[in-house]
Amino acid sequence: MPQLDFHTQILLDEYHQLLPVLNRLNEIVSQTLEKMIQDSGIVVTAVATRLKTEHSLTGKLQLKGSKYHSIYDITDLLGGRFITFYTDDVDRLAAMAERVFTIDWDNSVDKRRLHQLDSFGYNSLHYICQVPKTLFEDPQMPELNKIKFELQIRTTLQHAWASINHDTGYKSDIEIPREYMRQMNRLAGMLELADDEFSRIRTELNDYRRRVQQLVQNGKLDDVLLDGETFKSYLQASPLDNFNRRIAAINQAEIQEVPLMVYLPILKTLGCNTLGDVEKLIRQNEDDAYRLARHQLGTTDIDIISSAIGLQDICIVEIMKKGGGKFGLKWLYDSLNGEGTQNEMLADMTLKQIENLPFMNQK
After folding, report:
1. Going by CATH, does the domain composed of 6-173 fall within 3.90.550.60?
2. In whole angstroms, what is the distance from residue 162 CA to residue 94 CA?
3. Across the 363 residues of the chain, what is the mean pLDDT of every consecutive 10-residue run?
4. Which helix (H) or strand (E) holds 126?
5. Which residues make up the CATH 3.30.460.10 domain(s) of the chain?
6. pTM for the full model?
């Protein structure tokens, strides 16, 4: 290892003296970043902090130690990082950081805004921050509010590009052949486009969800195509609650809530293309389904029923009215329970239960 010059050695000595404060600062910043994520509700792929090691600091000082007058001039002794899924979440977290920390705007860099129109490359938001006394203060460690640290906020794809840069030496002093530079720029452009498209799609999906919820609330179900998102919104309106309570009253039973999304492909197979179709199927079969439930429960002492009982019996009635018979019932039970021999026995048992009910004679 080369001999360290006097100035570098002084800075390293200051670093050693400051280590207890740096470790405490690391704890404070780490806890603050975690709380920011919890408060924001933003989903991130990583939130982390790291202290610069003596080995890393020594290498940095050997290269450009002369630019630092004291240890406080080094702004990356501590680094924090958010890695998000979406580009717009980078800006949301940046806004939160601006409220929480003191930002050194002169030394902070938004690398997303530095590219020329005909170039692509590394994108990330780098803030140089300090912990304000309003966030944390310790009279025994006044240096806590003096030390600057770096906060990086980037997307997963931006982070992938940064790692590629590092591994390939793309940003090193070694000249890379033009052919490879062109290929790297193409890949960088693809990553930027993917980042933008993911954010655009999320925005449009959120708009779609809001439109669907509004249509459901307004009862315009015929205008809403049946899919996973719309069926979820429909179920949130609890359309079967009154019917289930009517069934539960047969035995004064308790209703146990279970997920109903499993019925989505069943309803589609039964011919439902919109939420209006689902609503019609329920209303057309509700009375017959109640007779079926009364036949199933009336002679038992069952006092706990599933919240799926209403929709299941409605599907049974619809299948039988369409002439599905035992095959249709087995398909229903296979769809709900997974394929198995027990479903054939369930189909036989159900046929026996309903053979004398009025809807069995409908053409």
Report:
1. no
2. 19
3. 77 92 96 94 92 90 86 93 91 94 91 51 80 94 95 88 67 61 74 83 79 76 87 89 93 93 96 93 93 86 91 94 92 92 91 82 58
4. strand 125-130
5. 6-173
6. 0.61
